[in-house]
Design a protein that fits this description.
The protein is α+β, with helices and mostly antiparallel strands. The protein is 51% helix and 10% strand.
Length: 239
């Protein structure tokens, strides 16, 4: 973890030196901030808030240069950026929640301060995510006969997706996979198979292989349908 921490610090220093007064703050996000980081399955998420009227010239090049600071960890780096009003940039609704609740300042020790997205925006983003990221993978998951090494990460993410989705839908927040799966066991949505989700979490923790999760032969259509049935009922959250 020290090597990853050093890389994160280098990335923050890179943006601080290149953006100077335009940089409000750089933040550690994602599982490095809210917990449950997996060296195999997690990305390295960084958020930057900027103090300017429009996106600065060359921001894409700056991000690419940040990825080049380390050939290994740079492949995992995801940078979320924008202004505090969130009127431009790449700072989607769910990442704004993560930034507000869990963002760790890396340069100026400034806590993120901007308006929290409301329920309608959060639910809208989650529905978009279903259409964009989860639903298109259902057919692919159904057709898998074997789990190739390159498919392990997206497969485990897809198995855990109902937990992350339901937690954020009910609680209007973003948190770790551990917290999301724990919440799922509390509410036990009708028809949802929790065993593969629990085992996928153990996989993220390094306690089993992705192939063990795959051997359960989870029904992706059932997981999708029962999850959608749950959120359409808008059950009351358990906090």
């Amino acid at each position: 973890m020290k090597q990853i921490s050093d890389f994160v610090k280098d990335v923050a220093c890179h943006f601080a030196s290149q953006l100077d007064s335009l940089l409000v703050e750089a933040y550690q996000l994602g599982s490095l901030a809210h917990g449950g980081f997996s060296p195999i399955y997690s990305d390295i998420d960084i958020g930057i808030l900027l103090n300017c009227a429009a996106p600065p010239a060359g921001i894409d090049a700056l991000i690419e240069n940040a990825k080049n600071l380390d050939l290994e960890y740079g492949k995992k780096l995801s940078v979320f950026w924008g202004n505090p009003k969130c009127s431009w940039g790449r700072l989607p609704v769910l990442d704004r929640l993560d930034l507000l609740d869990h963002g760790i300042p890396l340069v100026h020790n400034r806590k993120a301060e901007f308006s929290r997205p409301g329920k309608a925006k959060i639910h809208g983003e989650l529905l978009n995510s279903i259409e964009r990221s989860w639903k298109p993978r259902i057919d692919e998951l159904r057709r898998l006969a074997v789990l190739d090494p390159a498919q392990r990460k997206p497969y485990i993410r897809a198995i855990l997706y109902p937990a992350r989705l339901i937690y954020s839908w009910d609680c209007l927040a973003v948190d770790s996979n551990d917290r999301a799966v724990d919440y799922l066991w509390k509410i036990k949505p009708e028809g949802l198979d929790l065993k593969p989700i629990a085992l996928a979490l153990e996989c993220r923790r390094g306690r089993c292989a992705a192939e063990e999760v795959f051997s359960l032969r989870v029904d992706p259509d059932r997981q999708f349908d029962t999850t959608m049935a749950y959120i359409s009922g808008t059950a009351a959250p358990i906090m």
